[in-house]
Amino acid sequence: MNFKDLIFILLIVLATNSARAQIETKTYFQEIKSDIELPDESGENVIKLFHIDGEIVVVSSNGIYTKQNKEWQGKTNGKNWRTACMDENNHIWLAAENEIRSDFGTRIYLPESAKHDTILSLLKTGTTLYVGTTNGLLTYDEKWTDTKIAKGARVSAIQQGKDDEMWLATNDGLYRRANGIWLNLDDNLMASGNKRTYFSLAEQKNGNDIIYGSMYSVGCISGAGNHWIWRGADGFPYGPVTTIHPSGKALWMGTDKGLIKKDSTWHYYLGKRWLPDDKVNDVLVIDDHTVWVATPKGISLLRNVEMTLEQKAAIYEEVVQKRHNRRGLVNASRLSVPGDLSTSKTINQDNDGLWTATYLIAECFRYAVTKEPEAREYAMRTFEALERLETVTGIPGLPARSYALTTDSVLQSKSPHPKVWRPSPDKNWQWLDDTSSDEIVGHMLAISLFYDLVADDDQKIRIRNLVERTMNHIIDNDFHLIDYDGEPTRWGVWHPDSINHSANWIYEKGLYSLEILSFLKAAYYITGNPKFEKTYHYLIDEHGYAANSLQTKMYGPFENSHSDDILTYFSYYSLYRYAKQDKYWSTYKKSLERTWAVSQPDRMPVWNIITSIALNRNCDLHIALEELQQYPVDLINWTMLNSHRWDLQEDRLSDRSNKRQATQPIPTPESGIWRWNTNPRQFDTGANGMEERSGTYFLLPYWMGRYYNLFD
């Protein structure tokens, strides 16, 4: 996301929400990434960052640059700088392959004896310049000295410790100089698991503690004896660490695959959600809430911005209105250039009806909480989109999956079950057939909430008529959705013979029983038509649908379909609203208890909230709140890779898509942005930055939680 655009949005949001700050008093820190724009002449490869006299100095492979009065100043003095250091006088020393140059003009070349070596690291202390190379350590103080230390080894890092201590990270051991004597600690002290190979060094507590990065761990040699080590089993995400930066209570670490922060917990930043390139060259901590990260493709600015969840919701609302309203339908947008929101274009998808319904649900709760005219306007517009999905087909009670004007270009479905675009009766529209139960679940819940929380008298009449048509279509067609071709749709089947007796529907038996019962109770509530209540009891008494609901959630040893969870929990919530006084409510609660026991570890906020409401107890609401806070502001569907990580244990059973998965959910800031109906344990997800999601995953649970006073 463009930094200027993001700051502008945040300023507007913070200003417009200040008038109702008393509604939500609790703030948190939202992590936000933006890109630092560099001068063209600097190139993209930023190798070092320094903070000098209140200004940030950027060292790239081309030179040294400082931003003064919002303008970059600097000198392009080369095209091959590899590393740099800053001395006690705030002068910068640059190193190329075999040349060193200071920012005040001093130029030094490696001695003839080292002309075939390459400089890897620098440290300037006093009048001595320490130079780590691919062939050991050299020093320069008016003349070159070959120290003979680490001869034949790569000296990747040099660090001054307390007093005259000096430390070297090499691929043949960790070296320490104390009282003028060098010792390779790997000869008689360090763990053999380090493989004598070290990549980075840093100091803490005035040099009393030395932190090192080795092949498979990060560790600390403490002057007070309080040594420690972090490995994958301790939560260390990945290594080796090539740059280390202690700051206050946090430790920042860069690797060739991402950035790590360790404070009270672990944080891992990988992919273009956080970094322009996965390789981290350097880290500059500005303060407790601001960090610059240097990579071969530029600089990321990571900031912790204080805000409330309501302010965050306002950001997502703006995103929806700008880029996700396609003729009233709300879903993802496609980007023709990865990550470039200016190239966003709304597109049709197979389940536009369901995802639009999630937005309507959010707006209904929002209006009920705030009474804002804007919320009512958006809810009305979205209800009319769901209404049009049914009227556009010309088949009473059959909603389309999606619609578009006849003149609109549309994407063809890639589903294994064929879906065809059909003409509307007036030929002005086209609509996508083969409607699923997904649409009915979403429509029925969203429309019933609109009926209860938003609709005026005229709209309630329209809703009653719409619900009558929908449920009559299903009941009168033997509990099927009948498509344009006169045949049942693939997933629009609730008939007892199929649900109870067909091998093809064993998996869906519990879920589809729960669905149809929730439809009938909502329909009876809205219309008062006894036909729907009678049918409800018929399916329970004659075909055991209430008892079937006890098998709703399928899980190991069976396949676990996370895409069914939204249908499951929406049905539970609808039954909570309209069947609480029903004698079968105890059965539905028992079913929900069973389902919750399986999905509780998934950390999905809307499931936690619905379960807490329906069971009338706190079902991990603190986790729901954490997840809402951690959900990224950047809604671009970046590719997020986690299969290489050391801290995540792999489940040897792949998921239902035969994808590799962890034994626990991937932390939300490190996982894919699309979480509604996906496996939260899947290692690798995303769409290469080619689409943006709408934010309803946040908006629905947030406003639902506010409506029920579950949090501020």
TrEMBL record:
It comes from the Bacteria. InterPro entries: 6-hairpin_glycosidase_sf, WD40/YVTN_repeat-like_dom_sf. Keywords: Signal. Residues 1-21 form the signal peptide. GO terms for biological process: carbohydrate metabolic process. The keyword Signal applies. The keyword Acyltransferase does not apply. Residues 652-672 are annotated as: Disordered. This is Two component regulator propeller. It comes from Draconibacterium aestuarii. The lineage of its organism: Bacteria, Pseudomonadati, Bacteroidota, Bacteroidia, Marinilabiliales.
